[in-house]
Amino acid sequence: MDTVNISKLIDHDLYAKANINAFDSTLKTVKNTFKKGDYIGKIYSYIVRDGIIYYMIYLSYYDYENFIPTFVKHDPATIDVPDLRDILEKIKNEKELAAIEEQGSVTYYTRKYLPYIIGAVVLAIALPSIIKSFKNGK
Q1: Which residue from 4, 13, 77 is spatially nearest to 44, judged by alpha carbons?
Q2: DSSP SS3 for 57
Q3: What is the pTM of this model?
């Protein structure tokens, strides 16, 4: 499974995939409960407490103006970031571009596609004799 650095999720929308609680800054008091399908909010930041990731959101403009954050525990079973697929694709493209820049485009693409090219050449050479042996066998 692909992983994403949590900082790549900042400024993306968070939705509830199941009922989930949102906590105040103590991470103990439930401030709000979201139902499946609810829009939770935009991820502004995150914290890690006791090895658990919590996304920081604001429930209202008042909360934002007065820095009253709300925290939602990271749990892939209960939260969804619809942009995640696009984020993973962007990371994949960045890795590929870095590899091309490091190795050079000719070396990169040769290493990537050479096994397929060799396989196609071997198949093209062997295919006529394979077909001939099947025809002679009938």
Answers
A1: 13
A2: strand
A3: 0.61
